[in-house]
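QA checklist item 7 of 12: single-chain prediction sanity check.
[x] sequence parsed
[x] length recorded as 405
[x] structure emitted
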Amino acid sequence: MKEILLINISGADKPGVTSAMTSILAQYKANILDIGQAVIHDNLTLGLLVEIPPEYESSPVLKDVLFKSHELGMQVRFQPISEASYSHWVSQQGKDRHIVTLLARKITAQQIAEVTTVAKQHGLNIDNISRLSGRVRLDCESSQTKACVEFSARGNTANLGALRSDFMELSVRLDADIAFQEDNIYRRNRRLVCFDMDSTLIEAEVIDELAKAAGVGDEVVAITEAAMRGELDFKESFSRRVALLKGLDESVLAGIAERLPVTEGAERLVSTLSKLGFKTAILSGGFNYFGRYVQKKLGIDYVYANELEIKDGKVTGNVSGEVVDGERKAQLLRELAARENLSLEQVIAVGDGANDLPMLSIAGLGIAFRAKPLVKASAKQSISNLGLDGILYLIGFRDRDENSI
């Protein structure tokens, strides 16, 4: 009769523990049905689910493993597993798998407690927990620290909308971002990232900066804010704002471009994506002049924005060509995906305004970044508490991976 044993070994991490234990099991022709190992603060936990063949008894196996554990200064615990229990465990593998990513400046016990409670309430079981962020010094008080924990969860939730709503409520209350994704092949195979520019790649709305220089700042800001909240049609609001810029001297544009503040984490994100073989694009309702400036500064592959019309060294108050609004952004995203021979599931879209929602909705991973409430509520994922490089965690990137690329 076959015997199934769960063996848990723990203690101070040292080289050779896994090798020693599996070498013993190999002597008894054991089959490894499942295995997991983790090291936290130099403390090892090793779990082995083992099938002992009928021709061997478990007693000698237990004795040899116990002796070797004592020799290595490790603790060991054995648990017999019935065939019925094992069969039930096997039957669970058909359930959907998900990734829950918790991002914050610092991870607290309360955040983890409440995230896992919500997961449990919606029928999800946490299989694995991993820290993706690097180690942080206790005396580090930087406002730009970042922490990330990833949960691998299994289960079929009855109401996905309610689950996302509960995570959204937690994220606001706990000053954390919580992403919930299906764990499928596309999550590990994204290849194109499309960014909005204003208030996403840069911490400014260029048209507002132009308006200040033209002396119509307050008027344009009011229209911009209404448009970003979704209260005004983008094309109408855009036309009204650009018209107010009529007569602005062309020389002003260069000075504004040079002062544009790049968003926290943008340079690291784009540089890392490039090293990993991703293509990147700016799809902006702003202006090509500034899009090309940001493209060169960050190393972006493509840029599509509006062409601000200038005649005789003065802004005319018009744009030439097709206006890049929300629908145009979505169309451009589709075209770029086709050009790169990618499915939409392999595309990430990032933006903050209402005119970004069409492209966020069709991308495999749509992320509302430091977005307005309407956009944050409508997008599948959002990041509000970290910089743009927090997106790397959503594709499973670990901080330590940076050393190997």
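[x] summary fact logged: The two ends are 50 Å apart (CA to CA).
[ ] second reviewer sign-off
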